[in-house]
Amino acid sequence: MNLTKRYKVTFIKDGTMYKTGEEVMVGMPLASKFYAEGKIEATSELLNDAKALGCEELFTKRKKTNS
Q: What is the full per-residue pLDDT of the chain (67 aa) written as tens digits?
């Protein structure tokens, strides 16, 4: 996993710090956490880099939420 590269993500669900529609630059580890929580959609750049690094499974499954 690339720990230094940043990716532009847009929130689709409100979080603690960010609201729906906000765009931020985050690293892959944080992007995978937000994705698993259903707060962002994975971009093609993020998916392509994850696949190239062999960690695409971080962006294939999501936790089920009740909200």
A: 778 899 999 999 998 899 999 999 999 999 999 999 999 999 999 999 999 999 989 998 666 655 5
pTM above 0.70, yes or no: yes
Which residue's structure tokens are 């971009």? 43
Beta strands (DSSP E) in the chain are 6-10, 23-27
Listed residue (56, 24, 64) closest to 40, CA to CA? 24
* Cβ atoms of 36 and 55 closer than 8 Å: no
CA distances from 63 to 36, 40, 58, 59, 60 (A): 6, 13, 11, 11, 10
